[in-house]
Specification:
The chain is of the alpha/beta class and 253 residues long. The chain is built from 2 helices and 24 strands. It has helices spanning 3-44, 51-60; strands at residues 81-82, 87-89, 93-95, 100-101, 106-109, 116-118, 123-124, 129-132, 138-140, 145-146, 151-154, 159-161, 166-167, 172-174, 177-178, 191-192, 197-199, 204-205, 210-212, 216-217, 222-223, 228-229, 237-240, 245-249.
C-alpha cells in the first residue's frame, strides 16, 4: 500500500470517528448537547493545575453533567480534568495524559514525602484522599480507576498500584502501623512498617477492602468486599474474609 493511500485511509477513519461522535451528541442532546460540548471543549484547552487552568476547568463544567459524566472532559486536554473542588497540595505530583481527578479529591504532601505519580488515564473519583509522608510515595499505573471515598496513606514505605486495576469505594491502603508498646500513648509511638504495598496489574478490589503493610496482591487477583489483606494474594486468586484468605482461582471459575 502506498503512503498516499495509507494517509487517505487514516483520514477517512478519523472523519468517520468524528461523524460518529457528532451523531451520538445529536441523538443524546440535539443542538443543546452539541453546544454544551463545544463550550467544554473550548475551555478545557486552557485547563491545568495553575490558577488560570483551574478557572478554565470550572467554566468548562458550567453546562457539563456531574460525576461520571464529566469523565469525557479529561479527553479534551492532555493535561486531563481536575475538578475545581479538588485540593492539590503536592510539590512532587506527576500527572500522565488525560487523567481524571473528581470532586473533593485531596492529594496532600506531608514533610519528607516522596512523589505521587499518576500515569495516563488514571481516574480518581470523589472524596478520595491521597497523602504521602516520610518514606512514602505512590505510583499508579495507566487506566486504573479508584472509586469514591478511598484512603491511600503512604508513610514509611511506598505504595505501587499497577495498570488497569479496579478499586471499589471505601478501600484503604496503609503500609505502616503505630507501635503499641505498653506505658506510652499510641499517638506518641513511632510508625513502623513491614514493607510497602504492591497491587499488580488488572487486580480487582471490592467495596471496603483494607490493605495493610508488606502485602502484594497478585496480577488479576480478586479481593472480595470487606476483606482485610494482611498477607500476599497470588496472581489470579480469589480472596475473601478477615483476614483475607484464598478460596479459589479464577481459572477454575
Amino acid at each position: 500500500m502506498s503512503t498516499a493511500t495509507h494517509d487517505s485511509s487514516a483520514m477517512m477513519r478519523k472523519q468517520s470517528q468524528i461523524l460518529s461522535r457528532f451523531q451520538k451528541l445529536w441523538n443524546s442532546g440535539g443542538i443543546s448537547g452539541i453546544a454544551s460540548t463545544a463550550w467544554s471543549v473550548f475551555w478545557m484547552q486552557f485547563a491545568g493545575l495553575n490558577y488560570l487552568g483551574r478557572l478554565a476547568t470550572w467554566i468548562a463544567t458550567w453546562f457539563a453533567p456531574p460525576y461520571y459524566a464529566r469523565r469525557r472532559l479529561a479527553r479534551f486536554n492532555t493535561k486531563g480534568y481536575i475538578a475545581p473542588s479538588a485540593t492539590i497540595y503536592h510539590s512532587q505530583l506527576q500527572l500522565g495524559k488525560h487523567i481524571f481527578i473528581g470532586d473533593r479529591v485531596t492529594i496532600f504532601e506531608d514533610k519528607n514525602s516522596g512523589c505521587v505519580d499518576l500515569a495516563e488515564r488514571v481516574h480518581l473519583y470523589g472524596d478520595t484522599c491521597i497523602q504521602t509522608g516520610e518514606g512514602g510515595s505512590l505510583k499508579i499505573g495507566s487506566d486504573t480507576h479508584i472509586q469514591p471515598r478511598c484512603q491511600i496513606s503512604a508513610y514509611k514505605a511506598p505504595i505501587q498500584i499497577g495498570r488497569g486495576v479496579q478499586i471499589a469505594p471505601n478501600c484503604a491502603f496503609y503500609p505502616y502501623d503505630h507501635g503499641i508498646a505498653s506505658g506510652e500513648l499510641i499517638s506518641k509511638q513511632p510508625l513502623q512498617t513491614k514493607g510497602g504495598i504492591v497491587v499488580e496489574d488488572h487486580a480487582w478490589l471490592g467495596f471496603g477492602v483494607i490493605v495493610l503493610d508488606g502485602v502484594r496482591i497478585g496480577k488479576g487477583a480478586v479481593v472480595g468486599a470487606g476483606a482485610v489483606v494482611t498477607q500476599d494474594i497470588p496472581d489470579d486468586a480469589i480472596a475473601v474474609g478477615v483476614p483475607a484468605r484464598v478460596i479459589g482461582m479464577r481459572s477454575n471459575c
